[in-house]
Amino acid sequence: MTQKQSQILSTALSLFHQHGFSRTGVDKIISTSNVAKMTFYKYFPSKTSLIEDCLKEESLLIQNDLTHRMNRASGHAEKLKAFFQWHVEFSSSSHFKGCLFNKATIECDDEYGSIFKIIHRHKHWKLELVKNLLMALQVSDPATLAHLLVNMAEGMLVNARFKPMDYLNGWTVIENLMSSQQVGLTA
Predict the structure, then answer these.
(1) Of 107, 109, 150, 158, which has the fewest beta carbons less than 10 angstroms from its beta carbon?
(2) pLDDT computed for residue 156 by the predictor
(3) pTM of the predicted model as reported, rounded to 2 decimal places
(4) Residues 9-18: contacts with CB within 8 Å, 24+ apart?
(5) Could you tell me the maximum CA-CA distance found in the chain, to the nearest angstrom?
(6) What span, in angstroms and rounded, lies between the C-alpha atoms of 12 and 78?
(7) Which residues contact residue 116 at a Cβ distance below 8 angstroms, ignoring those fewer than 6 apart?
(8) CA distance 174 to 176
(9) Which residue has the higher pLDDT, 36 or 166?
(10) b/e string for 45-69 if b means 16 or more Cβ within 10 A?
């Protein structure tokens, strides 16, 4: 990736986080990133292609951050706790303006099928990550519990601007839920 391409992508990510996709036009991205219109279109032939690259970049950033956080934890239950804690901290940070994937789901029409594929891959990655941890913890129904836990984490990203999740209370509920599924929380 060239420096100009990276500059445009970084600017677009910031503007999309702040204002959403529909309220952020290409002209605003061009002027804020301080590049020529021709340079913008050299790297991003359409706003859709820019949104696709932004979502891919956002997914990669989240995957790297989450993986790093979880790799520091010892044991499968602690990794799951790190997954949950990351979502609480991310959604309650002062610069959080909502989840970019949720914004894209709401703001982009069905004509942007490629965007929805990127969103699906990102959410599937999270689901598989949690499901694999639950399988390692020998949960009786890891797929169902993974869906519940990922939906809870995703829900935090949707509702955080209204009422942030209390981390300790939330984790206690998750521990109780896992215990009811006969999970060895010390694994």
Answers:
(1) 109
(2) 79
(3) 0.86
(4) 9/50, 9/53, 9/54, 9/57, 12/50, 12/54, 13/54, 13/57, 13/58, 13/100, 16/51, 16/54, 16/100, 16/103, 17/97, 17/98, 17/100, 18/97
(5) 59
(6) 35
(7) 105, 108, 110
(8) 5
(9) 36
(10) eebbebbbbbbebbbeebeeebeee
pLDDT band per the 50, 70, 90 thresholds, residue 111: low
**Residues sharing a CB contact under 8 Å with residue 107, sequence separation 6 or more, in sequence order:** 20, 21, 22
Neighbours of 120 (CB within 10 A): 11
Which amino acid would we find at residue 56?
A: K
Task: Scan for tokens 């804020």, then name that residue.
Answer: 32
Give the amino acid at 31: S
Tokens of 79: 């990794």
What's the angle, vertex CA 93, arms to CA 91 and CA 95, rounded to 5?
Answer: 105
